[in-house]
Amino acid sequence: MIQKEVSVNTNSDHKSTIAKLLATENIHVVHKKTQTASFNVATRELVLPIFKDSISNDLYDMFVCHEVAHALWTPLNMLDKIKEQGIDKSVVNVIEDARIEAMIQKKYPGSITNFKKGYKELLDKNFFGIKGKDLKKLNVIDKINIFFKTGIDVKFTKEEKKLSDKVGACKTPEDVLKLAVEIAGYHKEKEEKKQKLTKKVSISKKDDNADDKGQESDTSQYDSDDEIDSDEPALADTEETTNDKNQKSKEQDKSDDDKKEESKTASSMASGSEGTNNNLESATDQYTGTSVQEVIDHAGKENLYINLPSKIDLNKLVVGHKKVYSDFKTKYWNQKVDSSEQEFKNYLDKEILKLYNDNKKVIQYMVKEFEMKKSADQYKRATTSKTGSLDMNKIHTYKFNDDLFAKMTTIPGATNHGMIMLLDWSGSMAYNMEDTLKQLYNLIWFCQRVKIPYQVLAFSDVYGERTSRWDLPDEKEHVQKFVHNEFNLRNLKLIEFFTSDQTKQESMDMMKYLLGYSEYWHNRNTYNRDVSMSPLSIDHTYNLGGTPLDAALMTMPDIQNAFVEKYKVQKSNLVLLTDGDSHSCNDKFELQSDGTWKQDGHTWTDGSTTMTHKKSGKSITKSDMMYSSRTTTYLLQLLKKIVPDMSITGFFIAGSGRAGRVNLRTIESKFGLNHYRSTDSKKIIEIQKELRNNKVAVCKTQGYDEYYILPTGSKNIESEELTIKEGAKTSSIKSAFSKSLKAKTVNRQLLNKFIGMVA
Q1: Is residue 621 a contact partner of residue 608, using CB atoms and an 8 Å limit?
Q2: How far apart are the first and last CA of the chain?
Q3: Of 344, 726, 703, which is closest to residue 549 (Cα–Cα)?
Q4: I need a surface site. Which of 12, 437, 452, 607 has the fewest CB within 10 A?
Q5: What is the mean pLDDT of residues 272-283?
Q6: Which distant-in-sequence residues (6+ apart) come within 8 Å of 206 by Cβ?
């Protein structure tokens, strides 16, 4: 139907909540540059204009209630039926408004106050155009509109009162349409009768022989037909008087176009039509549409509303570990090789065992810290209660001790932990894959030792036969169902390299295969191709591609939910291992008017962006949402809202090549600093010093609980052994010992922080 009330700016979080509550479903409230409000039934979107700040919350809440009521009870085909009946839509709108507003107030009594205060505000702003006017002179539909919306005591004639009562009794859309026809018929009949009587009076005036008695008789006839509203003047006189008054009062401040519009509105107010007395329309309803433009913020910025994917097919999204293991084993490891390539395979067999043995101490330390912190947490939550049995060791104290009963301490069971790890599978990882994998393997071995479920998913956008991440799959191939105004995940795939469902041998094999892959990509993408062994040829199904980190994060609520359900996890931990920022994920689905889908809809705006997870109802609004470097941060913040008990840790492998330096740009980006600001410059120097000394910097400004910036080649979560050359001087031994001790101290501090979050 026609929606012509007003709204406010998007500075309050409760607004969309109201709509969802009232509609008993997840209606999405958006504010856009539009002249009127509307509700899209197909997309469940309630569109509100952007208005100036002068409108109260009560008026806004009233408006939302009104629009949601239309969404719940006004049928889609009502406009078509109006056209079939030949009735003015404003007439039907007035009656339908009365019906649905009564229903919403009955369903939610708390909204009654909003409607009372809201319509009072509209009256004060003269939104109905009735200020200074005699309400008795309004046509029947305008009287009904004013009466039901504002509660003003409108003087109805007897026939009008009957029609007004029928409006209050309407229960269905069919009742509304039927009554609209009846009211329009009543108005037409009344206007025709007035026109006939006016014509008779004109003829009698031209008759020079007519006497006063005859004229009096005709007037008496006219008054009796109009029942109790006998003081209503002739329509033509009313129109002329009203028009003159409005024109004179506003003439000086209005342009010629404004004058014409005012004249038109005044005419409509008086007659209920635009030049045709017999056709009924609501001037007060139409006047509201004109008045509302005065409070619209036409200079307001366009806001963007976009939702996380709500219908993801995990079977299409995740490439299961069994297939991945089979592919690597058959297409990579079991291929026919020559002697040099066999030498490389032997090297990998030894390297993975060496890596495991080298990190035993670190893993052992992590396990010990985890068990200690877990036990401390259990005892913290322990409860002590009396057993009801006497403590025989206290019997002798009965004269001065009232507490002679034995006590029992109950220690709650340990929380079931779980860990999901996201591995960057982008092209830049060619330089940093080996170091990243070593960090990852420590986490896997830790999970295996403490027997907590884990899952390692590499995010890729070029898996399989696709050669470009820009290729758009159709709906049958897509990992998600097309839903209007939701992010498009494009070609995202999550490759399950590791899981606690694997055997230990399968896990070690997969680690070995990936180490071989890391050698291939490093040699392929560096100028230094001087390697002693020739790597095995790889399966290009698992090529490196872009960095769809943001797209991967959008799937985490579904991934985490499936993980928790499968392993009965109580506390989940999300760990991200990357070497760069996410590429932009700024496509969305748009349902076109012809029923087709646009898969790369625009997601940029000069206003604020609101990102919503519809299943949980959680959202976040930011002005810089769609800048790629910031999108990740806000996605992490939103993820914390969706899964509040989940800890999020990031390992950023910074730098490229064996030098492994963390450049200034990375520090500024990760810590939100600018070296041109003196205060920030000092902080940057401190961070650079920390990186030199400790080989790690901890950041807490990116949406993570802990975010570790690690230079390439860092051994922070590897063991740091004391190495002394033969024949070394005492000073050298002392220096080496001090360096080793410091390294171990730093390592343990880092590990303590990480384990503390996990436990």
Answers
A1: yes
A2: 56
A3: 703
A4: 12
A5: 57
A6: none
According to the per-residue pLDDT averaged within each range, which of 148-157, 199-208, 312-321, 467-476 is highest? Answer: 312-321
Give the integer Cα–Cα distance in Å for 366 and 368: 6
Query: What pLDDT does residue 726 have?
Result: 56
Instruction: Please give the torsion angle defined by the CA atoms of residues 455, 456, 461 and 463, in that order, rounded to the nearest 10 degrees.
Output: -90
What are the residues whose beta carbons fall under 8 Å from the beta carbon of 305, sequence distance 6 or more? 28, 30, 485, 609, 610, 612
Q: Please give the helix or strand (H or E) that residue 108 lies within, else none.
A: none
Q: How far apart are CA 565 and CA 416, in angstroms?
A: 12
**Average pLDDT score, the chain:** 76
The span from the CA of 444 to the CA of 456, in Å, is 9
Task: Give the distance from CA 309 to its chain's centroid.
Answer: 10
Min mean pLDDT across 270-274, 284-288, 378-382, 604-608 is at 270-274
pLDDT at 731: 55
Q: How far is CA 137 from CA 52, 227, 269, 274, 643, in A?
A: 33, 14, 9, 16, 61
- Is residue 580 within 8 A of residue 430, CB to CB? The reply is no
DSSP code of residue 459: E
User: Does residue 175 surpass a pLDDT of 80?
Assistant: yes
Please count the CA atoms within 13 angstroms of the CA of 569 that sit on its side-chain side. 27
Q: How many residues does the chain have?
A: 759
Q: How far is CA 9 from CA 69, 288, 611, in A?
A: 21, 20, 17
Cβ-based burial of 670 (10 A; exposed 0-12, middle 13-18, buried ≥19) = buried
Write the CA distances from 705 to 463, 614, 640, integer angstroms.
Answer: 31, 24, 10
Give the residue from 181, 186, 124 showing the smallest Cα distance to 152.
Answer: 124
Where does the pLDDT of residue 603 fall: very low under 50, low under 70, confident under 90, or very high at 90 and above? confident
- CA gap 709, 702 in Å, rounded: 12
H/E stretch holding 107 reads helix 89-107
**How far, in Å, CA of 277 to CA of 271, rounded?**
6
Single-letter amino acid code for the residue at 416: N
pLDDT value at position 627? 66
Inter-residue contact 662 to 707 (CB < 8 Å):
no
Q: How do residues 533-558 score in pLDDT, each as one tens digit?
A: 457 888 889 999 999 999 999 999 99
Query: Which pLDDT score, from 0 to 100, does residue 23 have?
Result: 61
Ramachandran quadrant class, 701 (left: phi over 0; alpha: psi -120 to 50; beta: rest): alpha
pTM given for the model: 0.70
Place of tokens 């050669």: 467
Which among 101, 90, 96, 194 has a CA at the least distance from the CA of 142?
90
Which of 31-45, 50-64, 134-148 has the lowest average pLDDT?
A: 31-45
Which tokens sit at 465? 């036969």
List C-alpha distances in Å: 503 to 334, 508, 671. Answer: 19, 9, 40
| Best-predicted range by mean pLDDT (93-97, 274-278, 722-726) | 93-97
Average pLDDT over residues 245-261: 44
Residue 482's contacts (CB-CB under 8 Å, 6 or more residues apart) are: 475, 589, 591, 597, 599
How far from chain centre, in Å, is Cα 728? Answer: 63
Residue 43, class by beta-carbon neighbours within 10 Å (0-12 exposed, 13-18 middle, 19+ buried)?
middle
User: So what's the pLDDT on residue 536?
Assistant: 82
Cβ within 8 Å of residue 45, ≥6 positions away: 27, 28, 30, 39, 484, 485
Dist CA 56 CA 710 (whole Å): 51
Contacts for 284 with CB less than 8 Å, ≥ 6 apart: 128, 129, 130, 138, 142, 145, 146, 269
Q: Which DSSP letter does residue 526 get?
A: S
Q: Which of residues 618 and 742 earns the better pLDDT score?
A: 618
